[in-house]
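ARCHIVE CARD
CATEGORY: sequence design from structure
SOURCE FIELD: tokenized fold
FIELD CONTENT:
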């Protein structure tokens, strides 16, 4: 928690569906829109390496495009903004426009790698600014005071209806998952397994990383992801938000008191 004149202010994480923001960008958490940035000193910025990994294989069922965003941790407010078209569907959110049917022959292959975290200091009084406006734009609820960088992908796989091949493909997918989570350097797939992944699957990739969007073979995607574990990744996966009163303690304009919808109301609207 941060403070503003003795009040505790919550620190919030928000998935970076729109990766155009940076530290000191102003943010509308009702519509998940990014406004202008403020030039501030980064002298007190803290950086921490994390290097954590997560990988899931999720079996499909009907009407799961919206549910998959919830499964991977997209916040209620952000999902609602996307469902109501309050902001563009970019990055992972483009999955909402996936046109093929989702059914028992669908698999979602999800991978998340968190590389590092950067944040400015907790006390805004100690941060210097070169062009801080006298007040934020109307609609501003938060300021981005930190970012988390890494790679996040969802591969939507449409399988053949052949039961035996489905079993073999599911086994190959488990091998890919194990490869990404353990310390093996080489992906060990048989030629038959590679052929199955290539010829028996329609693959569509959604990611925060542009380099992945044009790769159609899942095994090639996994090799790329493995190599990236040893590199510095600058693509943003999360924003760390503080209420706008952290920077403007006397501001009383619209949105200054951000009120989140209860989860059951958000789910009903979706």
């Amino acid at each position: 928690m941060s403070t503003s004149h003795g009040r505790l202010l919550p620190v919030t994480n928000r998935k970076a569906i729109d990766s155009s923001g940076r530290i000191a960008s102003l943010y509308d958490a009702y519509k998940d829109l990014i406004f202008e940035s403020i030039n501030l000193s980064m002298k007190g910025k803290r950086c921490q390496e994390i290097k954590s990994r997560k990988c899931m294989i999720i079996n499909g069922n009907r009407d799961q495009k919206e549910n998959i965003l919830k499964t991977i941790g997209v916040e209620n407010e952000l999902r609602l903004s996307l469902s109501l078209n309050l902001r563009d569907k970019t990055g992972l959110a483009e999955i909402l426009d996936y046109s093929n049917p989702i059914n028992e022959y669908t698999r979602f292959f999800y991978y998340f790698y968190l590389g590092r975290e950067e944040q400015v200091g907790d006390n805004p009084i100690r941060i210097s600014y070169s062009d801080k406006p006298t007040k934020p734009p109307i609609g501003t609820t938060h300021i981005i005071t930190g970012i988390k960088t890494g790679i996040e992908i969802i591969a939507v796989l449409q399988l053949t209806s052949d039961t035996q091949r489905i079993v073999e493909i599911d086994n190959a997918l488990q091998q890919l998952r194990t490869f990404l989570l353990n310390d093996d350097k080489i992906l060990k797939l048989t030629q038959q397994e590679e052929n199955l992944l290539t010829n028996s699957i329609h693959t569509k990739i959604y990611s925060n990383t542009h380099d992945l969007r044009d790769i159609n073979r899942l095994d090639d995607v996994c090799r790329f992801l493995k190599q990236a574990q040893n590199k510095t990744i600058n693509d943003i996966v999360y924003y760390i938000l503080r209420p706008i009163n952290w920077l403007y303690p006397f501001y009383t304009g619209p949105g200054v008191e951000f009120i989140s919808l209860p989860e059951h109301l958000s789910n009903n609207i979706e």
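CARD ANNOTATION: The chain has a mean pLDDT of 87. DSSP finds six helices and ten strands in the chain.
SHELF: design records, drawer C
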